[in-house]
Design brief:
Blueprint (H helix, E strand, L loop, with lengths): L8 H13 L4 H13 L3 H14 L4 H13 L3 H14 L10
Helix pairs in contact: 2-3, 2-4, 3-4, 4-5
């Protein structure tokens, strides 16, 4: 797993090591997915999100971002299901309702 941000080379190398240094960290996989999503690499973003969800199935942000990926791909039904899971995981987070 490696994300190449627009940064100086030493920071790039550090980002590449994150995924291999903490393979059981759901939060890290979510952050990697967010980075990939911002870089418009939906496949890598989805893969990182699935790893985050497998490690911690009660991660509402992961379901919400997965819903945004499905929306970007035009898979509205899958996106609705993802947003419902985000709401179920954290019904008090108003951003889960604003899609």
């Amino acid at each position: 797993m490696c994300i190449w941000f627009r940064a100086r080379p030493p920071k790039r190398r550090a980002n590449c090591r994150l995924g291999s240094a903490e393979p059981r960290n759901a939060g890290l996989h979510f952050l990697l997915a967010l980075g990939y999503f911002n870089l418009k690499d939906l496949d890598k973003s989805e893969s990182s999100l699935k790893q985050a969800i497998a490690l911690d199935p009660k991660t509402p942000q992961a379901y919400s971002l997965l819903g945004n990926i499905h929306l970007a791909r035009g898979a509205v039904d899958s996106a609705k299901q993802d947003f419902r899971q985000a709401i179920a995981a954290n019904p008090h987070n108003l951003s889960n309702y604003l899609v």
